Amino acid sequence: MTSDRNRLSGPLADPTADAGYPDTHPPRMGFFTDTSVCIGCKACQVACKEWNLVPAETGELDLLGQSFDNTGALSANNWRHVAFIEQTVTPDRPPVDLGMPAIGPPAGDASDAGDGQVRWLMSSDVCKHCTHAACLDVCPTGSLFRTEFGTVVVQEDICNGCGYCVPACPYGVIDIRPGDGRAFKCTLCYDRLGAGREPACAQACPTDSIQFGPLEELRERADLRVTELHERGVDEARLYGRDPQDGVGGDGAFFLLLDEPEVYGLPPDPVVTTRDLPSMWRHAATAAVGVAVSVALSFLERGALERRKP
Amino acid sequence: MTGGGERERSMVPRAEFRSYYGRPILKRPTWKVPDVPGYLFLGGTAGASATMAAVAELTGRRELAGAGRWVAAGASVAGVAALVHDLGRPERFAHMLRVLKPTSPLSVGSWILAPFSTLATASAASQATGRLPGLGRFAGFGSGVLGPAMCTYTAVLLSDTAVPAWHEAYPELPYVFAGSALTGAAGAALLCAPRADHGPPIRMGLLGTAMELAALHRVERRLGLVGEPYVTGRPGRLLTLSKALVVAGAGLSLVSGRRAAPLLAGGAYLAAGLCTRFGIFAAGIASAQDPVYVVTPQRQGLGAAGLP
Amino acid sequence: MAECHPVGFQWVVEARERGATIIHVDPRFTRTSALADVHVPLRAGTDIAFLGALINHVLSNDKDFREYVVAYTNAPAILREDFADTEDLDGLFSGFDPDSHHYETTSWMYEGARASAAAGDRDRWPASGDEGGPGAADRQHGGGELRETGRAHSYGAGGPALSGKPAMDPTLRHPRCVYQVLKRHFARYTPELVEDVCGVPRELFTRVADAITANSGRERTTALCYSVGWTQHTVGVQYIRTAAILQALLGNIGRPGGGILALRGHASIQGSTDVPTLYDLLPGYIPMPHAHQHQDLDAFVAADAGTTGFWGNMRAYVVSLLKAWWGEAADEENDYRFDWLPRLTGDHGTYRTVLNQLSGECKGYFLVGENPAVGSANSKLQRLGLANLDWLVVRDLRLIESATFWQDGPEIETGELRTEEIPTEVFFLPAAAHTEKDGSFTNTQRLLQWHHAAVEPPGDARSDLWFYHHLGRIIREKLAGSTDPRDRPLLDLTWDYPTSGPLAEPSADAVLAEINGHGQDGQPLSSFTQLRDDGSTSCGVWIYCGVRADGHNRAANRRPRDEQSRVAPDWGWAWPANRRILYNRASADPEGRPWSERKRYVWWDAEQGRWTGEDVPDCEADKPPDYRPPPGARAQDALAGTDPFIMQSDGRAWLFAPAGLADGPLPAHYEPYESPVDNPLYGQQTNPALQAYDHPANRYHPAGSEVYPYAFTTYRLTEHHTAGGMSRTLPYLSELQPEFFCEVSPELAAERGLEHLGWATITTARTAVEARVLVTERIRPLRIRGRTIHQVGLPYHWGPNGLSKGDAANELLSVVLDPNVRIQESKAATCDIQPGRRPRGPALRAHVAAYRRRAGLNEDEGTPPGAGEGQR
């Protein structure tokens, strides 16, 4: 039962081997995005689009008014997305998200706001390449698959656009591309990895906010980094998606954040939906039996069987 | 009842939560309306009808069995058409059968739907042409065996997502769909089958009504904040209407001596089935669109932290 | 820096990770501020007050690096008795002529030294281009009566030459020594003043002052980085001067981790001043000769002959340049064809040229990678100039606004211009991008980095090298056989670059070879010290000599940083002589020992009898620290072994500039030309020597105008490039910042009823533009002079063409210039802002005119009441 459980959720040391690759497969590769050094230059977004020939936004361009973020979220056409969060920070109090400013004087006590220091968080979001990837699990065609690097990739020639991966993703990453009909997301530059190169976003990142490498190594580096930041008094630094014990068995792309995940548009404690799949099937089976029994009961009447005889 | 949503809403304490400019965390499911909720209805109706037809065949209710076959065949063919139309690349519909993946309810469902619809269609075709009657009967029994699975696998299809309202309702949703499938098949039979055969469908409808109402009630009570979309807004109104219709259908089905009563009952059952599927579908969309349904429950320990 | 130089900013981040404190001083909270330890929001245009207070903090608390200051700066030099400071003259220095608004600078000289600003002698045309004014003709052609105008560029990489040694007081106690003058000059630049002028709370200022001083000295160094935001002021040059004084006092020049790093606005702007594209310079900062001053080579270099420092070799540099251009045709007999060089007759700067276009003097214009129709201050003035030409050549990647203004410019909409009446014939010639051609970039640290063509340019696009080479080739073919003497300079040019490929692309390497230079044997030179004034050497850019030593293109060196020392000499090639830190002799003490082990860089190795260390020493390698120049020594021989600033004629860093500047030997805080407040320091409100142009399309606001009550500043965003010609047509960049917006504080939004994401109309006396509103706490209202001052932030990338569109922020600006280098004041001005979109068509003119009337700006005469005192 344990092994079955770990195929769907919980810690899984080697998802690549679990997917059937021989022991000689390369180590699991991933991203560690250290948002404490992100400068919001969006080079990752552009490099990703350039390399992967991801289409630009279609239709009228519009200002979103979400600080300097005019992308909004990850999507089929945005495989990297830099979030910008403006906050006022008053010592000894949690940061106040400024959100969408409205007309009128600033909310709350004006003198309060004046004392606060502005804090501007930036973070480059990407597909998490989960240990237990719901998108992959639910894909009916086998288009989504786990690569030898432990990453999760859509095969464009297989995907038939059923869209199941879209609501399955607990992070809201994968999406159907309008006008194309198929699902797209970050491939962790599968083609570049195959050629021994690092993904385009990581290579373009000027401050090494996006670090690429073997996941084990990245996790060690991230642990050191968070300790270092804590020693420096950055108590709010925390890792997100690093823990193999979490709801998706740990992310292949994980983050160092400076505030709660939801502030960055990330789910605070996501669970791969297939964790509950065995239970779901059991309920469905019971209900199906219920249908059969109900139908049968409905025909229970005197002479029901006699009538069958000619 | 429109005010009900607000009243019920206030019953659930809305904890303070933070988000990224109020944007949804999850992607809006891309499944099309009416294709997918329509299929949920058609598949359930077809499944229960096929099972009913098979039992009717066994119990000698030939005409009821015939009507059930027609409904099962027609609804499953329409359902397949709706599903293919929903695909981003419809020409690749056959890719659904490339693999069989137990972890993918859609894959499992495809492997249920494909034989089911084939058998249901074959049995109806045999019935219509009179050819290969033995095979036709066999196909009818086959579709009847697959029928219950057709009714409930779609609940897993919805639940096996990150959509809070769908996922959290996974223990109840199969029963909602099962009940609704029973009333749907009963409704179709009340419309199509001769009056003499109305006994079984009437009883099916009553059982289905009870099952659906009980399961829906549990969804609304148990889920707390995540259940909110089921009782508020458009999905809340649809489900309220569904409950009213199914009760009306059950009541009308018991009225005797009125010619129109079975027809009205059948219509009410079918309309209720549509309202249930569209309502549940819409509730899921609503819960995916508002980050509160993702953040607050996960903060309250329903996420990974709540793992046993 | 993170906004405009994200790639360079990685080193700031790395420094921060290694424990450096990052302080960001900027009117708005930017991506740089987000990563900084301290953000100091200040009012745009008040940096001299801020930096001056830092200087005062250093001086009044004895925080200067005294040994460095005494040995390596001119702090001990004693000034003349007739020098008078701004403290004495309420904001003016001695020598100001209120009629011409120019300084006569003799009184700024050291006592005992002759006022012999070498390049200045060659440079006596008036700073003002005000030809209409009385006496203009005299100033242009007046010979000996010309005022010293101090064109900073014409002093090249060094300063003006001095002759004679100044009197020095190493104890720094003499009341007229530079140190004491400096102390008195900045005495009133206090934290309280910073609070009053800049809006920076004194606690915050103190925090910055403590951090900088604690991090400077023997063991530590502090670096200052600035972008063009510092330069684009009517006191832009003095901004940099203030920074230089601070860094010299703290001993932060010529040492690792120190310096003042200028972040240029474009990939090779440094290269374009080195080689150069500036009208008043020849390659390598050799001044452009003047038509009436420099009749022959001897007269041209006379001022430098016999002077001290490396500029003493200027004749060798000039002769080698002339040999590079005219080869065999240039020899001793014909003065190396010095008379074939173009000559200056006055101000030919870009803004002067626009006025000349308007007056009809300038009839043809080349625009190469420049988009003045949206990118230059007062864009309308620019377009009116372009619309008054006979012909215009535009070379750019895309059809920029400067190429299409005649059909869809704002003046067509307002009815001020009609397409069929514009005489300008526009030739658009598409240009190749840097990935489509070979060549080099020279970045801000003087580093040449070679790039190789990756793809052929598309369609008709061609490299600039291709364009000029073939233009020259065709002109020379047309002139072939001409006997007209005026054609000789063209026909005798060494125009022999080999071409290759289907496009006949000239060899960039051949150009680099010409730049590097060669000796009589044709072999590449390896150092500018090999250059001779006898015609035996040829060198296109003397400071670049050695980039192709041994025939190897060192700009293409790319050894990774982890495979070489921290100085990384094998990445690219830095001029001069691949030296990574200029004046690095200052990293050692006068005896040649490192100031500290922690900060050792180059030092004197007594055993070897040579300078050694991690970098190429910035002095003659075998000149011992105890070398003292014999009487009569010239050029570098006249500098002592303790003089690190070898391009300066006295070998010292100048805290006080005795010559070379048009607006004062010391920086003083003057308000921007358009300021919301008065100057609390002096009666003199603005830079007395600034250059303003009155034109009906270039009206100025009075100071403290209630009609234009808000300050605004312009800037760039990471997502776009300058005026957008290279980014607004690219979908991947356009979607990241899709349209023009303005940034305002919540307080200003409340005051004016501006809605987030709504529209705002921003109005100046020039015109009005509309922008979407971003309300953000990143812009803070400041308390200045007892009032709340609001600042409006305007990124200037937009224009009407391309995918990402919007009005151009530069439309709002006036043309008012720094007197030294004639850069426009585009970082501080005033405006009004109101909710809603701007009027369209002729209604826009009426809207702007109504504002002008309310402000009392006469429609016919441009002089703003109360703001023009003594400035024109």
Automatic annotation (TrEMBL), chain A:
Q: Which cofactor does it need?
A: [4Fe-4S] cluster
The protein's organism comes out as: Streptomyces diastatochromogenes
One short Pfam name that applies is: Fer4_4
What is the name attached to this protein's record?
4Fe-4S ferredoxin
| Keyword Lipid metabolism annotated | no
Q: Where does [4Fe-4S] cluster 3 bind?
A: C127, C130, C135, C169
Return the cofactor note field: Binds 4 [4Fe-4S] clusters per subunit.
* Regions annotated as coiled coil: none
Give the GO molecular function terms: 4 iron, 4 sulfur cluster binding; metal ion binding
Top-level division of the source organism's lineage: Bacteria
Q: Where is this region: Disordered?
A: 1-22
Automatic annotation (TrEMBL), chain C:
Q: CDD domains attached here?
A: MopB_CT_Formate-Dh-Na-like
Keyword Transcription: yes or no? no
GO CC term (a single one): cell envelope
Entry-linked InterPro entries: Asp_de-COase-like_dom_sf, Formate_DH_Act, MoPterin_dinucl-bd_dom, Mopterin_OxRdtase
Using the UniProt record, give the first listed, main subcellular location: other
- The residues covered by the Molybdopterin oxidoreductase domain are 13-398, 429-471
Q: Which GO terms describe its molecular function?
A: 4 iron, 4 sulfur cluster binding; electron transfer activity; molybdenum ion binding; molybdopterin cofactor binding; oxidoreductase activity
What does the organism's lineage look like at the top? Bacteria, Bacillati, Actinomycetota, Actinomycetes, Kitasatosporales
Q: Which GO terms describe its biological process?
A: anaerobic respiration
Origin species, per record, is: Streptomyces diastatochromogenes
What superkingdom does the record give?
Bacteria
The record's annotation in SUPFAM superfamilies points to: ADC-like (SSF50692), Formate dehydrogenase/DMSO reductase, domains 1-3 (SSF53706)
Q: What is this protein called?
A: Formate dehydrogenase
**Pfam families recorded:** Molybdopterin, Molydop_binding
Residue span of region Disordered: 119-167, 853-872
Entry annotated with the keyword Metal-binding: yes
